[in-house]
Specification:
- 32% of the residues lie in helices and 22% in strands.
- By secondary structure, the chain is an alpha/beta fold.
- A 7-stranded mixed β-sheet has the order 7-6-5-8-9-13-12, sandwiched between helices.
- The longest helix is centred in the first third of the chain and has 16 residues.
- The chain is globular, with a radius of gyration of 18 Å.
- The N and C termini lie far apart (43 Å).
Length: 254
């Protein structure tokens, strides 16, 4: 299963995976039913989650019920335990929306929930993150997870997110963390060879590998940065929801 998933992730364009993978996984989920792990997003229980990863698969990572990964389950728990997200009628921008969240967030926020992406077939608004087509201070909440490592100018994208976020609002801006983290973010816009990008940045469509300076880059555009660690949770919760113990949740405020 690890080989199959890795092969599909590497060979099939992301937009097609977004459209069709959940259908196949619903069938697969039948063979994973059990009580060892639980997905807080869809509340399904399994004997284990599916492996996931392009180069090196992570065991027990992908929920076959809703396609949540470790970071999505952590975000859900954070929203539930640390915010009023599920009660508030906030206006929300979800950049590169994840399938596990879309219907659930839309049922909560209704027309206040806007999904946007430059190519995703799941998004309502076609948008370049370097030039977000909304007025300053439009949104109370913004999600932008595992996007900034793909974009040409991440600092410009951060400034755009800051611009359209309301004063007092917050954003969750997750990025992949490749340990050991370099002190400084590694990037070279001159590298166009996919193989070289994969070697240096971990994935052929990444253009940078973030380092310990990521919070400083966020602060540099005006954000206040809060870091929440999975390790702050009890081990029983980490095991139950199959979280990545090294994950750091980056929550920023304006």
């Amino acid at each position: 299963m690890k080989f199959i998933i890795s092969f599909l992730l590497r060979k099939i364009p992301r937009k097609y995976l977004q459209l069709f993978s959940h259908i196949a996984l619903r069938i697969v989920s039948i063979f994973y039913l059990g009580n060892k792990v639980e997905c807080p997003v869809c509340e399904s229980k399994f004997r284990k989650f599916l492996p996931y990863g392009r180069l090196k698969s992570r065991s027990n990572a992908l929920c076959p019920g809703c396609l949540s990964l470790e970071r999505h389950r952590l975000i859900w728990l954070y929203l539930k335990e640390k915010t009023d997200f599920f009660e508030a009628k906030d206006k929300m921008l979800h950049i590169a929306p994840e399938l596990c969240f879309i219907n659930r967030f839309e049922s909560l926020k209704g027309s206040n929930y806007i999904t946007a992406d430059i190519e995703s077939p799941l998004a309502k608004v076609k948008m370049d993150i370097h030039d977000i087509p909304f007025e300053e201070g439009t949104f109370d909440v913004i999600f932008c997870n595992h996007v900034l490592e793909h974009v040409r100018d991440d600092l410009k994208a951060m400034r755009e997110i800051y611009r359209v976020l309301k004063t007092g609002g917050y954003a969750i801006l997750q990025i992949p963390l490749c340990f050991p983290l370099p002190d400084q973010t590694i990037e070279d816009p001159g590298i166009e060879d996919p193989g070289k990008r994969e070697e240096l940045f971990g994935q052929k469509d990444h253009v940078r590998k973030y380092g310990k300076d990521y919070p400083d880059r966020l602060r540099g555009v005006g954000f206040t940065v809060k870091r929440n660690y999975v390790s702050d949770l009890e081990k029983a919760a980490i095991d139950k929801y199959a979280l990545d113990a090294t994950e750091i949740l980056f929550v920023v405020n304006k």
